DNA sequence: TCGTGCCTTTACCAAATGGTAAAATTTAAT
DNA sequence: ATTAAATTTTACCATTTGGTAAAGGCACGA
């Protein structure tokens, strides 16, 4: 049914690729690209190293595949920010979705953080090709809201940066947050309330 | 004059240790702990690898020494937040100092970010011993300001997290920021203005 | 059941890497 | 200048790591 070459991936192929990517997400997000080893990934996937290299062309291939596949999930909340909604509500729920993501998908957050920290050597093209257009589109949307007087005058680009940094902080710097906050009953709830208040204050016309 | 063992470090020893730490800061901040190699550090310091191991006990020793030495510099702006000043002004200038630091010392920022991302395996003690008491002290100060009605009710801990994340973002995620912003005349000035407005709004009683 | 092609394992390898031993050289106090 | 200590280089080494070759096992349609 698909284009070009017909049915390509067998059932077992699909399962093993999934196992490998799941293990790789774990290992890469914990140790970074160069700190991760194929042996670790293989052990965690329950496969042998050569078997892993049967499914992927090499370490870099696994890493790039991971990053590309997760990019969509990662950008979902931003995509969901809609011109139809009420500006303040749209932005505030974007903040909440992003914060939930940091809580539910911390490995993904750290994977990206690691890659960007190293200068984005392997996903720069993806950033330019996918993220940049989406970013520009949403900045334009915010600018339009401002022009319509539905938001106070603010810098769309840096607003988005602030949303990204404050929310992802809880995933990327989790070990520091844990040390500084001590045992907490519900850290997420407090972070959520704080960010809501902060961005509400900023978005008041 | 100092305690215990008298003059220990010779002139040449001081120079070489400085060269090594400078090179190590560069390499570690670009590639992370496991991604950095002693050969790279040696080459960048203009020394041979065994010569480096004459001055430090090993790779980890260099890394830990770096982190400990930079910790003080890194926390300076927070230390400077004073009970004597006016609350809003104190916090706003803390934000500015922190942002300037991200601009002037991006390597230091990335070094710490890398370490925290990996779970702070080598500076957890330093965080518990030095950062935590300072953090608690400043949170208490902010809480007092709130109790005195000089600041609106807000969460001191998460306020500090927000300041850290938004400012350090420009150092740690610099490659992404550059891709998304394109060539900019003065990126720092816009970021500075944005953060000032954001925290001003939040701190209005 | 037979055989063809997909999958997996065993046995490797070359390069990179953290680290060491010890000889050679330089520095600096006398 | 002499000498003892500090510094630097040369020549290694063991381990780790990404990756490969090739043989063996397995599934599944005819």
Quaternary class: homodimer
**Shape field of chain A:** globular
Average the pLDDT over all residues of chain A and give the rounded result. Answer: 94
User: What is the C-alpha radius of gyration of chain A, as a whole number of Å?
Assistant: 20 Å
Euclidean distance between termini CA atoms of chain A: 52 Å
What is the number of beta strands of chain A?
0
Q: What count of helical segments of chain A does DSSP give?
A: 10
The largest β sheet of chain A comes out as: none
Instruction: List the chains of the largest interface with their residue counts.
Output: A-B, 51 and 51 residues
Structure commentary:
Two copies of one chain form a homodimer. Chain A is mainly α and 205 residues long. Chain A is 77% helix and 0% strand. Chain A contains ten helices and no strands. The first copy, chain A, has helices at residues 11-35, 38-45, 49-55, 59-79, 87-104, 106-117, 124-147, 156-172, 174-181, 187-203. The first copy, chain A, is globular, with a radius of gyration of 20 Å. Chains A and B meet through helix 1, helix 6, helix 7, helix 8 and helix 9 of A and helix 1, helix 6, helix 7, helix 8 and helix 9 of B. Chain A binds a DNA duplex (30 and 30 nucleotides) through residues 10, 12-13, 16, 37-39, 47-51, 53-54, 58-59.
